[in-house]
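Lecture 7 notes: from sequence to structure.

We start with a single chain of 175 residues. Read the sequence below before looking at the structure.
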Amino acid sequence: MNCRIQFRRKGTISAETECLEKFAENLGADLLGVADLKLFQSYDGFDPSLLDFSFGISIGIRLSDSVIDRITVDDPTPEYASHYKAVNAVLDDIALRITDRIQGDGYAALPIPASQITNPALQQGAISHKAIGAIAGLGAITPAAGYVTPLSGIVIGSIAGILCYRAMLWRWNHF
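Now the structure, written as tokens:
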């Protein structure tokens, strides 16, 4: 792929993000979003050592519908546990390859494993991948902690989609 990650100025990333999205898609990602980490610094679990970085990249892979449909309210299934581990391994591999790509273009990058726990008492990682995804405009974090009914998902998705779209329009018109 013959494109570079380019920055218009410190603190903003240009439309060249599309090139990175295509690179990630070729590696097996279904989603990729770039978030301004300044918007994330007030997050309770934010690791101050990440202040050296301007952006967070969120990568997503669609989980198997059949595996998700078999999860019960009381307990995830063994299939889900295996699927979760396998998908996180792929996400970690994609993150390593994107890191290599970004470093090859002369920028600093730090891959953070998808399910790495740095604060066991709170079950938190060095950074919230969900929060980075939300800031990047890929989705919304709900009070239901990730589980919503299909109808609620449609409502939340519609509202979040409109808000994310408006925010992205504002972002591109002001930077």
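Residues 139-175 form one domain. Keep this in mind for problem set 3.
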